[in-house]
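In the design runs reported in the main text, the only information available to the sequence generator was the tokenized backbone. The following block is the verbatim input for one such run; it is reproduced so that readers can re-run the procedure and compare outputs position by position.
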């Protein structure tokens, strides 16, 4: 249903479906379900060479368990992608004889290595790594600068009490009690410093040592370099007027004295996680909780309580700025309200340009524009009963039933009226913005409940391929061909091995054609779903003193009731309180104004009707808000959705109440 029905039919996906590594758990069944490519090809065990496909798929086609049409579809989708990417063009993708082909190995960093790694039959060697420079190229540009830009735009300023940020590079602007007149800056926490054993010491970045630049797992890469925050800070501060002190651990013993000797304290903490095949200490993939790791909370509390010493009321004299590197939502409640904590930056996973990107923001060279892509709750349980890590299986096979439905993150908080610490979409700037002049213009696209009927006129038609089962002799191992152990091949040992052993029992409904869904008809679904239904415009003014980028967000709230298309009666409509439907990042100079425009599509103002199996525009009031977070709506308006119209598809399907129910 998911691959054949929703992805390839409804969403019109023209590419191929590839499994995650070792995620394929069946042979014929996965082929019938719509899988097109198995990766890396092994079966149920890593590097065992016992593929669930390979020669087994060949046998399944020859004995008619897998229809030839399904095999043709797999091959067509894969080859079409090859052409789509222009890989038939020798000028762009030269072959091996022209000096092209693979230029790096996943198995070794050496220039020369085994040409057929992991096979016990092979001792063949050759050049496997060509060390092609790609960081700065004419075609791709300066990737180091791009990495720095991405990192700094991902930094989110969530607290800036008293305008403690940005900070000066020299002693000008901050008071000091030092006898030598130097501004005293303390850098606290292991996360500010590089891993002393090396940036790439832990395979696949599978540990939390030193500053956190990326999570761990098979998607991790070798860092070409890593600028740690402390390195960049030492470089940027004016050494003639600033004295920097390093506290390179998260230990709090005697940290109070060091903190008391500072005019400003910068505390670095983190929270790391990754893919489940790697474990670091008690973290076996996903985090066990949503708190900072390695006693980060304790470090913040100790430094923030003592930075600059204490006044008569027992509060810290100097301010503390906390920088958090994290893989996701992290609960800050243990220290966020401490009077000494004046500023908080969530720097996420910044990559190789970590320190450079951070100093761009800390010193005000770049005005922070990041906004939270998740909600930060006050407690772990605020995220709901399904948010906790599953430490024990909830059945013979651990099962995720997705009982939360649409109510994930901010939608869950809104539904249950839970006050977050920092809501979805939240982010501060060094300037201030105002929104005004909201203009909402409904268009004719929302005058009907259902999108236009699916048209087959412009839908792609695949080429006709021979559906007949091929001669089994063509699939037998070619004479003289070398066979490497643990490598996967499509050939069979004998014709006899491919003979049927009884009729394959297809899944229910697989042996006959099904009507195409009315929700489809193009890439992404019915093209009419992407017709602009509502035009929205607002004025954005920078009312502050510095230039900045505002991220204007648009949310919609569907009616709480609607007219049921099948029953003709008013029924409750269970949808989120508000739903993000778009955002725009706009640079505005101080004192200037800019216009922000959004186009809401028919799909943006629709809900999925399980019985009708289509996107339906409800009847009732649609509320549209623009603002700077999910709970910071600055301008709102509403209008009536009428729906109705000529829903010819429903009339052709049957009388009201006779449409088959689906549980999706």
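Verbatim output:
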């Amino acid at each position: 249903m998911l691959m054949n029905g929703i992805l390839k039919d409804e969403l019109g996906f023209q590419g191929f479906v590839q499994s995650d590594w070792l995620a394929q758990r069946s042979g014929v069944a996965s082929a019938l379900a719509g899988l097109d490519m198995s990766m890396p090809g092994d079966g149920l065990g890593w590097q065992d060479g016992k593929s669930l496909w390979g020669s087994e798929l060949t046998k399944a086609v020859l004995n008619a368990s897998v229809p030839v049409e399904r095999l043709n579809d797999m091959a067509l989708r894969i080859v079409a992608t090859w052409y789509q990417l222009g890989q038939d063009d020798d000028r762009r993708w030269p072959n091996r004889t022209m000096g092209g082909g693979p230029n790096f190995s996943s198995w070794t960093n050496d220039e020369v290595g085994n040409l057929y790694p992991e096979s016990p039959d092979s001792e063949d060697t050759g050049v496997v790594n060509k060390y092609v420079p790609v960081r700065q190229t004419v075609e791709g540009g300066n990737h180091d600068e791009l990495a720095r830009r991405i990192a700094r735009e991902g930094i989110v300023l969530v607290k800036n009490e008293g305008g403690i940020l940005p900070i000066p590079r020299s002693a000008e602007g901050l008071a000091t009690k030092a006898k030598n007149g130097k501004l005293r800056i303390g850098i606290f926490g292991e996360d500010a410093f590089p891993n002393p054993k090396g940036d790439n010491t832990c395979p696949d970045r599978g540990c939390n040592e030193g500053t956190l630049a990326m999570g761990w797992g098979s998607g991790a890469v070798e860092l070409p370099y890593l600028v740690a925050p402390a390195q960049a800070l030492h470089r940027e501060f004016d050494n003639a007027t600033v004295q920097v002190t390093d506290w390179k651990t998260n230990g709090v013993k005697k940290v109070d004295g060091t903190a008391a000797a500072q005019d400003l304290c910068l505390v670095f903490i983190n929270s790391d996680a990754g893919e489940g095949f790697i474990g670091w200490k008690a973290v076996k993939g996903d985090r066990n909780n949503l708190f900072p790791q390695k006693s980060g909370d304790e470090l913040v509390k100790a430094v923030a309580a003592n930075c600059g010493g204490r006044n008569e009321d027992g509060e810290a004299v100097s301010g503390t700025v906390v920088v958090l590197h994290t893989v996701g939502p992290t609960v800050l409640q243990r220290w966020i309200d401490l009077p000494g904590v004046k500023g908080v930056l969530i720097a996420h996973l910044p990559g190789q340009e970590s320190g450079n990107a951070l100093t761009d923001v800390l010193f005000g060279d770049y005005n922070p524009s990041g906004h939270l892509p998740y909600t930060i709750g006050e407690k772990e349980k605020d995220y709901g009963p399904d948010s906790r890590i599953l430490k024990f299986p909830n059945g013979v096979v651990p099962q995720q039933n997705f009982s939360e439905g649409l109510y994930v993150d901010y939608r869950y908080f809104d539904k249950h009226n839970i006050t977050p610490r920092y809501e979805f979409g939240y982010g501060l700037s060094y300037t201030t913005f105002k929104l005004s002049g909201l203009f909402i213009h409904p268009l004719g696209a929302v005058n009907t409940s259902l999108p236009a009927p699916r048209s087959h006129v412009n839908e792609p038609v695949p080429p006709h391929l021979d559906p007949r089962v091929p001669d089994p002799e063509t699939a037998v191992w070619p004479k003289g061909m070398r066979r490497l152990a643990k490598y996967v091949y499509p050939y069979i040992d004998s014709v006899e091995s491919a003979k049927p052993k009884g009729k394959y029992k297809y899944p229910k409904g697989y042996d006959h054609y099904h009507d195409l869904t009315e929700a489809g008809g193009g890439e992404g679904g019915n093209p009419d779903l992407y017709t602009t239904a509502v035009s929205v415009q607002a004025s954005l003014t920078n009312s502050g003193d510095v230039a900045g980028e505002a991220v204007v967000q648009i949310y919609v709230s569907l009616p709480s009731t609607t007219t049921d298309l099948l029953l003709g009666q008013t029924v409750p409509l269970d949808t989120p309180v508000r739903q993000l439907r778009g955002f725009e990042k706009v640079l505005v100079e101080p004192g200037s104004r800019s216009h922000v425009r959004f186009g809401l599509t028919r799909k943006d103002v629709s809900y999925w009707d399980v019985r009708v199996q289509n996107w339906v525009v409800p009847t009732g009031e649609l509320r549209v808000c623009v603002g700077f977070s999910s709970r910071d709506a600055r301008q709102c308006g509403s209008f009536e959705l009428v729906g109705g119209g000529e829903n010819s598809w429903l009339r052709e399907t049957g009388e009201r109440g006779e449409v088959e129910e689906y549980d999706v």
